[in-house]
Amino acid sequence: MGQKVSGLTNKVTRSVSSLFSHSEETQESALATQRATPFVYKRTSSMFFDEEGDLAHEFYEEVFDAGHSRMKRQYKNLRPQGEVELPYPKLHPDLPIVMCELEAIR
Question: Where does the record locate the signal sequence feature (predicted)?
Fold first, then answer.
């Protein structure tokens, strides 16, 4: 995930810096990096599948000890859900562009 973030940041930074320079080489690289977007469409899920295919953040099983029952958290046999699509795009948190500036209220 960190490589995706740094790659996106480098692309956006290069495309923004190319707006202020006028060399032909920079303009060509700017055209190539215009496809980079400041939006995030997927994220890594924090949920897991268990052996039965159920999906949840945590799984517990009931354990009986000397006449008492307690819930014990399961850590084994869980698979991560992986990447999930976001319902709507979000701005990347490392976007190196000032979106708006506010003046101080006096």
Answer: none
